[in-house]
Amino acid sequence: MELKNLFKLTALSTALAATLGLAGCGGDINISTGTETTTPTTPTTPTTPTQSAQELSYSGFATKSSTTVGGKEVWVLEGTLAPSTAASTITTGGQDGDLIMLGDDVVWQLDGPVIAGGDNENSIELSILPGTTILGGSDSYLVINRGSKIMAEGTAAEPIVFTSVEAGLGEEGEAGQWGGLVLLGNAPVNSCPDLTNCDASFEVGNYSYGGDDTEDSSGSIKYVRVEFGGFKINDTQEMNGISFAGVGAGTEVDHIQIHLNNDDGVEFWGGNVSISNVVLTENFDDSLDWTNGWQGSAQHVYIRQADNGSNRGIEADSSSDASASPMSQPALANITIQVANGTNSGGDDAEGILFRKGTGAHAYNVLVKGDVDSGECLEINDDTTVSNANTAELTMQNSLIDCVEPFKDAKVDATAGTTLALDVEAWFNGQDGNLVGASDLTDYMPNSSSVALTGGKADLSNVDARLENANYIGAFDGTNDWTVGWTTAIHDDVDTAPAELPVMTSCPVGTTASDAVAGLYKDSSVTLICTLEGNVLSNTTLLAGQNVMYKIDGGAVLVGADKSTSATLAIQAGVKLFATSNSYIAVSRGSKIMAQGTADYPIIMTSEEDVIAGAEGERGQWGGLVILGNGLTNTCPDKNACDASFEVGDFPYGGNDNTDNSGQISYVVVKYAGFKVNDTQEMNGISFAAVGSGTQVDHIQVHANGDDGVEFWGGAVNLKYVYLTENFDDSLDWTNGWTGKAQFVYITHEDGNANRGIEADSSSSGASATPVSAPKLSNFTILPGTDTANASGDSGEGILLRVGTAGELYNVLVQGRKGSTAETESGECLELDGSVSSLVDNVNAGTLVMTHSIIDCNEPFKTSGTTEIRTETWFLGQEGNSASVVSITDGMPAATDTTLLGTGKDLSTDDSFFESTNYIGAFDGQTDWRQGWAFDPQ
């Protein structure tokens, strides 16, 4: 399909010439039909035609098109490229014997299959200069035959781009618009019994590949982008972005991207080639696929799938014949797979990794993140592969699975012919350094608090010389983004505008549908109510829609059964949920909640009154959210047989696993919860009962709760970006051995309707009850209410540390109301209560510390229960502390402030959970992290 056949001088081509831009070439597209003539200089002496530099360089192996694109001539390659005995024509590009060089001074077009060299004869080296663009038509692809080489070495600033004619002309690029790149080598494949006489047939074009040379070289591919390829030949044959068939270890491949391919991104048929710094985005079938004995390596691979458009991140085979040699057994390291939601048009679910057909592998530092509607993230099946897993031919270490559906087991199935079963979760957890928990990413990059940054396997080069040391999990180290500058569709060229929520016509499985009564709800766009009640014993997803709300009804909605039946309640970004007066959500031990909102589409959990027309949201109108985990709590002497009873509903919690994973709560607002059971039992906005650090909690707000905002009973769950507003009792409360971390917490009170900003306990049994509460906190701003009693007789106060707690507090600002009476000023802003003597011991031992903090209150300090310590002396005697006057507006200091800004402690150098800060309080004076998602109580 030549460009000259696409365009005639019509209004369409004229418009294209005026408006379209060429991807990868820069500048505007200019399309010329080549019909101009040369006017003689005189009537009798015509100008003698001369060849251009491009004609001198390229005429020996390519054909000049009559079209120009982006101000450059288009030269067409077709058929077989062979050596030449003519004199060298290389200027920018050209040919010299068996070297053919494609220059960047023109645009290249592939017309049909273009084959470099013959099969181990008439070999050539096809060199492609940095910044060169190659366009492929609908039936076009490029093959590098055995014995020939491709030397495509771009740069980050000037990548080499293989794309479709349509995309090159500024039209929309789509999968399948051309073929792809095929490399055929002489390395071993297990489809050849005799490797010295191997002619395996490639699936498209019947080209031969394979041999006995593990070190064979097919050249070098660096900073190369292949996009919109994968045309379909029939139902079983489609082109991959780059196909490596029997390619040897002498081939160098790094910094490649395959984007929007209609089949696999990269596929290997045997061989020993290694790849690194690979980006595979939105490919239709499998992003990374191997079979027939691939024994190379892959490191620093980023895979992002397309919702309703991809199958597996990795599909790994060796051979259906268990005796076929060599066995596929690559080394894999530092791979990030973002699994999509849904099913592609071929009916395949989006999934993570499938090991099957007898493959082996040694995988390190792999991160797989699944979403609410992703398929399984790690699966092993068939007997030979199970045997490899059992004999350490297939291993996976220092890897992280963060998925709603993390594992799929191999099962005995007479119909499928399998006789061996494998508990994949147990296999995974039984190997060194593996984790199942929250990955804590922003897009694909781990946050400073992510376990991925510290959980990787070190000294990889000692394990396999082909790998470089990278002791973090996933493709990225949290700082260096090696994709910048040469990739497409993951940086500035991505439309980041939020998609509109869909209109739903039915409710998800697991909920009951009813039509919204006209005029009943404040939001008149709501037409569908989906009710969730009872015991949720199977995975259930609450889908977001612009016309739907979810009703929590009938008392406790219990997710899963305690440590027996695991279930996941997934809640999509944008879901609005309301609860009736006696209802709440509780997540059992072993089950998960995956409430994954966004800044654009937070998840809202509120009361029925808050959504009904004519009613108003108030404290205590529903229960709240209860998470029950397997973490440590000091109420259980025997952590291996722990069944502590939650204060409402008697649900059991606690265990021996402080890394336990109860899911994710991000961008979630909980309003008007905390109903009262009796005088001593009231629900908190969010209750964390022995919840482990594998749970991800960030960007949460609890507003106007009838009891505490957030409370912890033991466990080690961490929090970041927490907004607690107008809660009745304590905004942040811990007891029974909480040892988690929190950063960026902003607490405000309603005058006369609050008690403490922080109430901190461990155990009345003192130090003998272990673990001792010892959280690590940084960057808090607390604005306590006035010293007037709430309905329970408690006044507005700042921080109370008591009942034997330990802990570390840094960068804390407490600013009380200022005035001369209880009605106009706050109560005490920092109190130590030594009634339980172990608190005094913690102060003296330095296990309860507070530094780089400011107390700005009329009643700054109080000491109770002891005469051995004085709160004021303790506070002012520590580094960076002061009782100073500060100025803030809605929690935010002025950008020119010097009291709060620049005076804080940076915890990130010692603890990767904490983001780097040098200021006191929850805000840096510039960025308001509440913006866009939080409820404004004013």
UniProtKB/TrEMBL annotation:
Leader sequence residues: 1-17
UniProt KW keywords: Signal
Region (Disordered): 33-54
SUPFAM superfamilies in the record: Pectin lyase-like
Low complexity composition bias: residue spans: 33-50
Top-rank lineage group of the source organism: Bacteria
UniProt keyword Signal present: yes
PANTHER family named among the record's database cross-references: LIPL48, SECRETED PROTEIN
Protein name (Swiss-Prot/TrEMBL): Lipoprotein
